[in-house]
Specification:
The complex is a heterodimer of chains A (100) and B (164).
Chain A: H1 4-24, H2 28-53, H3 57-87
Helix pairs in contact in A: 1-2, 2-3
Chain B: H1 2-22, H2 26-46, H3 50-75, H4 87-107, H5 109-112, H6 125-134, H7 137-158
Helix pairs in contact in B: 1-2, 2-3, 6-7
The chains are: A mainly alpha (100), B mainly alpha (164).
Chain lengths: 100, 164
């Protein structure tokens, strides 16, 4: 049985790496991917606590997080595609205006 | 054996995320992320959550990343977009990252001393399914409405306008 703190520290490290990637990268798609990494780090923490608390509720929450992440990805990628069609760029700095 | 698997999977996950940060090519980024998510599935299996492990691999490493790769293909940016150019951001970010790691670890330090229960968790697919359709029934239904809304929203957004 691997102790919970190993998993928690890994989850923290992954979350911070995702945050770094979000701030360092400049294209929208990769920034979106780093959001997914952060969501996954949260999932890892949830499942670790589910094991510590010996209850399956944490796993249900992770199931819902994954579902919401799938919906969020579909809408987000549609928006990125729309931005690319209108502005011909996906650099996050070039997108300054909300309309036009 | 468990420890060996844990360290292997953790190293590959962190390495894949680092590769994603370093690489400039979006398609490679997506592939790195698939690797990271597959290893996360392995970690979930180590945590005695077999159903979530399978869902992770099928939905995250499968469906979501295929969506990403499709969009990378459609957007087709020839020259990769370089990372942040400003030097001070490059130098400052590792420092702030270490600070954030320490802060987060301090904040969850109380959880480190949680007793590890040795009892077998009843969390097989059967138990999760039963819980999903009894205790979490409303959440489940609301999630299905959310997915329909996201689907319709994505289609409406991307649809090319007819002649105006």
């Amino acid at each position: 049985m691997i102790p919970a703190n190993y998993f928690l520290i890994l989850s923290v490290v992954l979350f911070v790496l995702g945050a770094i990637a979000f701030f360092i990268k400049r294209d929208l798609i990769t920034q979106f991917m780093s959001i997914e990494i952060m969501l996954n780090a949260a999932n890892l923490a949830f499942i670790t606590f589910a094991r510590s608390a010996n209850s399956p509720d944490g796993q249900i929450i992770v199931f819902f997080i994954i579902t919401v992440a799938a919906a969020e990805t579909a809408v987000g990628l549609a928006i990125i595609l729309l931005i690319f069609r209108q502005k011909k760029t996906i650099k996050s700095e070039d997108i300054k205006l909300m309309k036009g | 054996m468990g420890y060996f698997l844990f360290f292997l999977l953790a190293a590959v996950t962190v390495g894949a995320v680092l590769g994603m940060i370093i690489s400039k090519n979006q398609a490679y980024n997506a592939i790195f992320l698939i690797l990271a998510f597959a290893c996360m599935g392995g970690l979930f299996a180590l945590l005695e959550a077999p159903f979530i492990a399978v869902v992770q691999i099928i939905i995250y490493a499968g469906a979501i990343m295929v969506l990403f790769i499709f969009v990378v293909m459609m957007i087709d940016v020839r020259s990769g977009i370089p990372a942040e150019k400003k030097k001070w951001i490059i130098y400052l970010s590792p420092v702030l990252a270490v600070v954030l790691i320490i802060e987060l670890i301090l904040s969850i330090k109380g959880a480190f001393t949680l007793p590890v229960s040795t009892a077998i968790i009843k969390a097989g697919p059967t138990d999760l399914g039963r819980l999903l359709f009894t205790k979490y029934l409303y959440h489940f239904e609301i999630t299905s409405i959310l997915i329909i809304a996201a689907l319709v929203g994505a289609i409406v957004l991307v649809k090319k306008k007819e002649k105006e």
